Amino acid sequence: MRARLAIAVSGIRCELREVVLRAKPPALLQASPKGTVPVLVDTKGVVVEHSLDIMMWALRRNDPENWLVPEQRDLPTMLDLVAECDGAFKHQLDRYKYPQRYDCETGEVWRDAAVDWLQSLETRLKSDAYLFGARPALADMAVAPFIRQFAHVDAQWFAQQPWPRLCQWLENWKKSALFASVMSKYPAWQEGNPGEVFPLPQQAG
Ligand SMILES: N[C@@H](CCC(=O)N[C@@H](CS)C(=O)NCC(=O)O)C(=O)O
Predict the structure, then answer these.
(1) Mutation test of ligand 1: which of 21, 36, 143 has the most ligand atoms closer than 8 Å to its C-beta?
(2) Of 14, 17, 128, 186, which has fewest CB within 10 angstroms of its CB?
(3) Which residue, judged by its Cα, is nearest atom 16 of ligand 1?
């Protein structure tokens, strides 16, 4: 989702090929044998294999909303926060969501392990509406999809935490036009077919 957010805001026209993970098309595995999505192949055939790298690829080409230039601090500081998300928090999120996949009796211990980091986001949002200032930037967009997943595991529990600003930040993002523009469902891509145009012209910018 975060790769789509960055491509949508950049307005760079792509061919989107929706992949069903149970039936990965050979073209995906040929481009990227690791077999995870998202994967981007540029017009020169360069393969970009991770969602954050795809965000950077798009925003380095066109960054109309200055996601790479936050109001506060700088890009390396944002990337440090994203690394915390992609590291420890993602590890906890996966186990909270799917404890049985990881041989955990319950996910609650992993939920609780994430509390301090989520509290640190709440603290960050005390001074401004977004993580690095009064407008959204890369860190917000890279982190929000995972906070959304975390909140959805047990929405009631999440709503009961003392995180009013984090909840508001999440709600604002979920109400945004950009979020809506990346939530469309697409049919699975079939070999030989053209993909979908993404972003649609009205989705750009
Ligand atoms: N580090 C990768 C991780 C991507 C990832 O794990 N994607 C999942 C889907 S969200 C996947 O493709 N899993 C492969 C599978 O389930 O076969 C990224 O950020 O792009």
Answers:
(1) 36
(2) 186
(3) 21
40: DSSP letter: E
The CATH number that applies at residue 15 is: 3.40.30.10
| 25: CB partners within 8 A, 6+ apart | 17, 19, 189, 190, 191
The total of structural domains in the chain comes to 2
| CA 154 centroid distance within chain | 20
- Residues 52 and 144 placed together within one structural domain of the fold: no
Atom of ligand 1 nearest to the CA of 37: 12
Same domain, residue pair 120 and 189: no
Reported as a single tens digit per residue, the pLDDT across 29-76 is: 999 999 999 999 999 999 999 999 999 999 999 999 999 999 999 999
Q: State pLDDT tens for residues 122-153.
A: 999 999 999 999 999 999 999 999 999 999 99
Q: Which residues form the domain of 55?
A: 2-66+185-198
> Is the predicted pLDDT of residue 26 greater than 70, yes or no?
yes
Name all residues whose Cβ lies below 6 A of ligand 1. 21, 35-38, 50-51
Residues 83 and 139 in one domain: yes
CB burial of 95-118 (b: ≥16 within 10 Å; e: otherwise) equals: bbbebeeeeeeebeebbeebeeeb
Q: Is the pLDDT of residue 202 over 90?
A: no
Which residue of 19, 34, 37 sits with most ligand 1 atoms within 8 Å of its CB, as the best mutation to test the pocket?
A: 37
